[in-house]
Amino acid sequence: MSSPKVMLSCRNVSIRYQVGDFKNIGLKEWVMRRLTGRYKVVDFWADRDVSFEICEGDMLGIIGTNGAGKSTLLKAVAGIMEPTRGRVARCGKISALLELGSGFDGDLTVKENAYLRGAMLGYTRAFMDKTYPYIIDFSELKDFEDRPFKQLSSGMKSRLAFAIASLVKPEILILDEVLAVGDGAFRAKSEAKMREIIKGGATTILVTHSIGQVRAMCNKVLWLDKGRQVEFTDDVNGCCNRYEAFLAGRPK
Amino acid sequence: MMFGRLKQHQFLFEELVKRDFKKKYKRTILGMGWSMLAPLLMLLVMKIVFEQFFGRTVNHYTTYLFCGLLTFNWFSESTNSGMRSLFTNAGIFSKVNVPKYLFLFSVNIQVLINFALTLLVFFAFCAIDGVPFTWRFACLVYPISTMLLFNLGIGMVLSALFIFFRDIDYLWTVALQLVMYGSAVFYTVDKMPSNMQLAFALNPVYRHIAYIREVVLAGSVPSLEAHLTLAGFALAAFLAGAFMYKHYNTRFLYYV
Fold first, then answer.
1. What's the gap in Å between the CA of B157 and the closest CA on chain A?
2. What domain range includes position A53?
3. Contact at 8 Å (CB) between A105 and A116?
4. CA B87, B88, B89: angle at the middle one, nearest 5?
5. pLDDT tens digits for range B160-177
6. A143–chain B Cβ distance below 8 A for any pair
7. Do B95 and A103 lie within an 8 Å CB cutoff?
8. Whether B173 contacts chain A with CB within 8 A
């Protein structure tokens, strides 16, 4: 049996954020602070030495408390950020769904937004023409097609976002807190859809606070805590148990 | 290299251009006419105010004025909307990995079309003003191309700065005033002292206006030196902008 193809590998990825006074201060304030020596920028490592590897058809769950560095890691994986140190190697088209509902334009209609999003994800117009009916059908937004996006409810917005990202057949799909939204019926539908994608060979990364979802769907799990890698393993249940024990033992 | 990626993102670029149009004109038919009417009203005001001072010494003063306004307005509109183009799309580039200059280019397409419409009105005014049309009008393609490149370059620099310093727009409003009064939009420069002449020679917007006036009003082809100067300004601005974008490409994210 040949070993499965490695789709994504992160080696010793460290990402440094800068926090401090530099945001939103404007030029005159910047000059003033520089002159008076009150200008402070603090380095903050969002991720340190994170290494993992996923192969074709894998579904990786990333778990960790708030501020563990999950979203930052995904930004590096998606190529939005460059890792400060280390290397991200990806193979294939990535469809990243980071922070649902953002990146859509409130003034454009559902249809225009779907095309814009498709374009952002790197697809062609011909592909979108062909896929759009499925997207609108899957997201159950047929009646809202020509409504401005800002008039939709947040559940509808995330349905559309999920439908676009999942139906466009990426080779690597990144889902950040996606399944936490939508009503029960849609959640069941989207989970079924994701299983279908995984069966179809897509490699998926799922970031969630729902341990149940990780247990049910993932075959690998990466646990981050305060930017450090606690575990990367294919022993999903064991890791989830330890993580839950960690959560329970944490002072409230 | 830059244009290779542009080709690859053609679909996204088209969608962005469409979006910018829809947002600018709010899907109204009058929207576009409105933005052409604004420079015409400005032309009217300036003509009424300044014709008595400068109209006597300048032939075809209305056309003279329009040459200046046409160019300056384009510069002003392009840089003003270009400045905000990166920031307003922060929601996109912080979530999806796309070339960041697409936003600036897209908004400039919209501004360019607006300019093209105003240019048509300008030609109509030339005809009414009795300016003879010659084959040399074809030369206008040259300053329009260099001005476009120049606008893109300044737009890149400003949009990058705007991410870092949100109060740049106030400074730019003042700078635009200075450019407006320093570009001989409504007055003539030939009686100025020589040190002032040098300042005009170094003003890219003025040089573009001067080129256009030479073609339209004098009906002659400007010198080789004029051509090289315009190309130099355009190239310098564009390279400065491209450098900013390349250098800060991954750092914009920290500021939005």
1. 15
2. 6-249
3. yes
4. 90
5. 999 988 889 999 999 999
6. no
7. yes
8. no
Total domains, chain A: 1
Closest-CA residue to B223 (of B211, B209, B206, B233)? B211
Alpha helices in chain B (DSSP H): 2-8, 10-25, 29-54, 61-88, 90-93, 101-128, 141-164, 168-181, 194-201, 204-217, 224-248
* A103 contact B CB<8A: yes
- What's residue A97's pLDDT? 64
Instruction: Judge: B95–A80 Cβ closer than 8 Å, yes or no.
Output: yes
Cβ contacts below 8 Å, chain A against chain B, sum to: 77
Rounded Cα distance, A83 and B33, in Å? 48
Q: What is the CATH number of the domain that holds A18?
A: 3.40.50.300
Sequence-distant (≥ 6) Cβ neighbours of residue B124 within 8 angstroms: none
Indicate the pTM of the whole model. Answer: 0.85
Tell me the chain B residues in contact with residue A98 when contact means C-beta distances shorter than 8 Å. 95
Q: What is the DSSP string of A129-149?
A: HHHHHHHHHHTT-GGGTTSBG
B188, B58 in Cβ contact below 8 A? yes
pLDDT in tens, B106-119: 999 999 999 999 99
Q: Is A203 helix (H, G, I), strand (E, B) or coil?
A: strand
**pLDDT digit string (tens) for B195-237?**
888 889 999 999 999 999 999 999 999 999 999 999 999 999 9
Average pLDDT for residues A39-49, to the nearest whole number? Answer: 82
**Each residue's pLDDT tens digit, A70-90:** 888 888 888 888 888 888 888
Question: Are residues A26 and B250, on separate chains, in Cβ contact within 8 Å?
Answer: no
Check pLDDT > 50 for residue A1: no
The structure tokens 């401005």 sit at A148
| pLDDT value at residue B1 | 47
A13 located within any domain: yes
A1 found inside a domain: no
Phi, psi of A152 (to 5 degrees): -80, 155
Contact between A102 and B98 using a beta-carbon 8 Å cutoff: no
Contacts of B164 by beta carbon, 8 Å cutoff, 6+ apart: A22, B255
**Are A98 and B15 a contacting pair at CB < 8 A?**
no
Residues of A in contact with B250 (CB under 8 A): 81-82
Name the residue type at position A185: A
**CB within 8 Å: B96 and A121:** yes
In a domain? residue A127: yes
CA distance A218 to A214: 5
- Does residue B137 or residue B22 have the better pLDDT? B137
